[in-house]
Amino acid sequence: MKKKLTKSVEQKGLELISILFALTLWQLAADLIVKNKLLLPSFTDALASFLEVIENGVIFTDIWVSLIHFGIGLALALVIGIPIGIIMGWFKTANRILDPLIEIIRPIPPLAWIPFAIVWFGLTHKSAGFVVFLGAVFPIIINTFTGFRSVPRVYVEAARVLGCMRDRDLIRYVALPSALPSIVAGIRISMGIGWMCLVAAEMFGVSKNGLGHKIWWHYYLHQMDAVLVYMLILGLLGLLIDRSFRNYTDKRLLKWRSGEVI
Amino acid sequence: MGRVKVNSVSRTFKKEDGLSTGALDNVSLEIQDGEFLCFIGPSGCGKTTLLRIMAGLDSPTSGNLTLDGVAIKGTDPKRGMVFQEYSLFPWRTVIDNIAFGPQMQGIQKKDARRMAEKYLELVGLEQFKNSYPYELSGGMRQRVAIARALANEPKVLLMDEPFGALDAQTRNSLQNELLEIWEKKHVTILFVTHSVDEAVFLADRVVVMTSRPGKIKKIVKVGLPRPRDRTGAEANALRNSMLKLLAEERKG
Prior knowledge:
By secondary structure, chain A is an all-alpha fold. Helices cover about 80% and strands about 0% of the residues of chain A. Chain B folds into two domains: about 5-80 and about 155-250, P-loop containing nucleotide triphosphate hydrolases (Rossmann fold); about 85-145, no CATH class. Chain B has helices at about 45-55, 95-105, 110-120, 140-150, 170-185, 195-200, 235-250; strands at about 5-15, 20-30, 35-40, 60-65, 70, 80, 155-160, 190, 205-210, 215-220. Chain B is globular and about 55 Å long. Classes of the chains: A mainly alpha, B alpha/beta.
């Protein structure tokens, strides 16, 4: 255990020093230069505030609620976005029918939907999930579509010669696995955008709880140290979600790609 | 049985500007069961197009083809194909690539794998069973591609410059292996190549084609007993006569 720790310190020494240096700089700037807790809470202020929200447990409710919003939106985006992308990528006619509709709706910023989200779903989890969905669904559609469009012809032809002739089988056994790297990249982009939409949606009052909501709430109370804590939590959680997703896909779904330069 | 008949097949391609180019012009040919036939000709002469038509990946503008008396229409596992470029599915392991054909015939994955093992052995790559294609060299990939095509027990094996991208040594050993497989499996092989050496070493008969639009210029019978001497006097004579035929086409 001790050996492991010293080893990781040795390996990550420079990175650690970098972070410590930045924290010191922050602390000094807040204490000696700005000297105003409203404009720039110091590191120790933030730490104290962090310990407080952990102690009273409020942060866990907020994380949980935000993850529910995010989960609803992302799951919906996957369930709807991937099939649409597949159909558009594989069938030319479907592409001609769906493409104009999607291109009209897509440029509308997801946050512009907030009024309708509230009118349709009220101040519920569904409402925030809906806004996340709108942010997340288009990158998934587009990347699935692109992945399907760039399936190398030789794979499709090889499959056909080997007796895989129906569209359904060609999609399942050839196009989908071939497009998977692109779909996975789309999901990662979607998660990033969805995460941003989540905070904005919660801030604008689509929900009564959650990390984004709390940022706004603490701002009203001029508790900027708490605002900062929630900001950092959002950042760390976003990083964690992206890393674990990437880890999973690299190990499980895209093992066959290890030979390629990405 | 694997008798292929090609009856006055022509193929023209329409370009976007409305002009059309002829790729094949009135090609007729009869291929015996179990024969090893090579196609050779200047690049762009339509030999690949002819092979693709036989595979069912393309269709003739006019004329028709039959396999054992049955019209060729669309792809069919009875006609296997090995492509010039690497065509293994990169997301499947070697064994699962070979098992793909049987699996598509409705055979359970487990049984398909067991069948595939037989073909993996045939090309001598048992130890790479669970490797992914990116872990294999070019020669190994084409061996697996051959095994994959054979796993469907095709009557005809269509090969489109399968060794074109390989270095000379690998190429020679794969040619030897292919002949062994051909003798073992009794399959009709139609093999497109741009190498006269390869054609003389492999084929029973060599179809020499004209430049575009491709017609059959001459069919040369290679009557040499196997195993053949690559640099023997008869082989050299055949090679020279074929090179002369090809040179005529380049000038014209």
